[in-house]
């Protein structure tokens, strides 16, 4: 959210946020449906907005989304840059004004080198009958990573798990090329009826001897045959 403060009345105000190449921007306003920010100033200059003199404030809220779903597209130099914000106006005496910010940067957030997520779970799961959980492992770096092991970590609280791995307790995964993904199935079995949780699915990098954070718990419903 950008806040603009002025010391005098402003009329015929035009706001414009120019997103960086890897982002698309949507302006969010309470009095109208969200509209995608376009490149022409004319489309953005709608009804004049009055800002009260002596410290009046007007807020802008923009929603940014990646302009491409391809992981490789986000790996660009200066990818922390969100864009620039500019505003033009005329005072009640007709005097023009213009303000443009420097590049606005996002807050740095740690990025994961690999991402493990559940893709598909059977809609019907029966008690003590093996079922497959389809998982996807994505390499989010520009280098080859792996090999990996996938296993079910023990419960931190010491409680007995009600959904277990069926068969081999560790699943070995091959090397994953840069920005590539592999899909695989993990055979599991439920030991109790009703709503249960698949918890503790963990990824381990063999060469680096590194454990990744377990997958978030997945709720399932176990039925009798």
TrEMBL record:
Residues 123-213 form the Trafficking protein particle complex subunit 13 C-terminal domain. It comes from the Eukaryota. Residues 8-104 form the Trafficking protein particle complex subunit 13 middle domain. GO terms for cellular component: TRAPPIII protein complex. It holds the Pfam family TRAPPC13_C. InterPro entries: TRAPPC13, TRAPPC13_C, TRAPPC13_M. PANTHER family: TRAFFICKING PROTEIN PARTICLE COMPLEX SUBUNIT 13. This is Trafficking protein particle complex subunit.
């Amino acid at each position: 959210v950008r806040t603009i403060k002025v010391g005098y009345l402003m009329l015929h105000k035009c706001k414009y946020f120019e997103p960086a190449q890897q982002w698309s921007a949507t302006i969010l306003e309470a009095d109208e449906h969200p509209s995608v920010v376009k490149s022409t100033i004319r489309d953005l200059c709608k009804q004049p907005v009055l800002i009260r003199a002596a410290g009046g404030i007007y807020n802008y809220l923009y929603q940014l989304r990646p302009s491409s779903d391809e992981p490789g597209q986000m790996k660009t130099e200066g990818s922390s840059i969100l864009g620039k914000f500019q505003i033009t106006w005329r005072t009640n005496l007709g005097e023009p004004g213009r303000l443009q910010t420097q590049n606005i940067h996002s807050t740095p957030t740690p990025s994961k080198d690999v991402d493990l997520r559940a893709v598909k779970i059977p809609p019907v799961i029966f008690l003590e009958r093996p079922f497959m959980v389809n998982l996807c492992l994505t390499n989010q770096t520009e280098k080859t990573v792996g090999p990996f092991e996938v296993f079910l970590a023990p419960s931190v609280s010491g409680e007995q798990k009600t959904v277990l791995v069926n068969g081999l307790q560790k699943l070995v995964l091959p090397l994953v090329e840069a920005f590539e993904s592999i899909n695989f199935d993990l055979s599991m079995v439920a030991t109790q009826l009703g709503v249960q949780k698949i918890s503790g699915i963990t990824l381990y990098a063999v060469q680096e001897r590194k454990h990744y954070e377990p997958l978030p718990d997945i709720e399932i419903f176990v039925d009798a045959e």
